[in-house]
Amino acid sequence: MTVRCKVCNTSRITDKEHKKTDEKWECQICGNLLDIDGYVKTL
Fold first, then answer.
1. Angle at 32 between CA 31 and CA 38, to 5 degrees
2. What is the pLDDT of residue 8?
């Protein structure tokens, strides 16, 4: 499964079986903290 950053459209490959709703990742291109669906997470 591929998830795209909604800010800069960078893709990230994720494992569908380990998809957690609270998982966050940092985009290596734009530096935003994103949720599992690619939307920007705010603190």
1. 125
2. 92
Residue 30: per-residue pLDDT: 92
pTM of the full structure: 0.63
Sequence-distant (6+) residues with CB within 8 A of 22 are none
pLDDT digits (tens, 9 = 90+) for 1-21: 788 888 898 888 776 655 555
- 6-13, Cβ contacts within 8 angstroms, sequence gap of 24 or more: 6/34, 6/38, 6/39, 6/40, 7/32, 7/34, 7/40, 12/38
Q: Residue 7 corresponds to which tokens in the numbers above?
A: 């800010």
